[in-house]
Specification:
Layout: E1 5-15, E2 19-24, H1 26-31, E3 47-52, E4 64-70, H2 71-99, H3 103-123, H4 125-131, E5 135-138
Antiparallel strand pairs: 1-2, 1-4, 2-3, 4-5
Helix pairs in contact: 2-3
């Protein structure tokens, strides 16, 4: 059954008025995920996700839950974090090599442009954070 969400099983660590902190349990969730080859979650032992608390008084510390993210946002995160930097790297490498620029200058140019790219992503972090909305749901018993 294919869903429109990426799911990861987790345990609630902390609940406050603003956020619910959920530790992702990647072993069970990643085994059934179709995007596990593209996701860095499979390489991480423990990941803590901050989910906005929208009046979730139904949850308790230590409770096992599912953390959901729309699949389209997962692919958007993939583009932002991996594919766009790869494209920048390849375009600069090929273009500067074709022009005959020295290898050291090519490497410095690539590092500079990647640093600029990630700085722009850092500056836009609040806008990006508003787009990536995680949802907590109780596990089926």
């Amino acid at each position: 059954m294919k869903t429109d969400n990426i799911e990861h099983e987790g345990v609630i660590l902390d609940i406050d008025s603003d956020y619910i902190s959920v530790e992702i349990l990647n072993k069970a969730a990643c085994a059934s995920c179709n995007a596990k080859q593209m996701c860095s979650m499979s390489e991480v032992k423990a990941k803590i996700i901050q989910v906005e608390n929208r009046g979730f008084t139904l949850y308790e510390k230590g409770e096992r839950v599912n953390v959901l993210l729309k699949r389209s946002l997962g692919f958007k995160a993939l583009w932002i974090s991996y594919l766009i930097p790869l494209i920048i790297l390849l375009v600069l490498l090929l273009a500067l090599s074709a022009v005959g620029v020295e290898e050291l200058l090519i490497a410095l140019s690539i590092l500079t442009f990647l640093a600029l790219y990630y700085y722009v992503v850092y500056l836009l972090r609040d806008k990006i954070k508003k787009e990536f909305i995680f949802i907590v749901e109780k596990l089926d018993k």
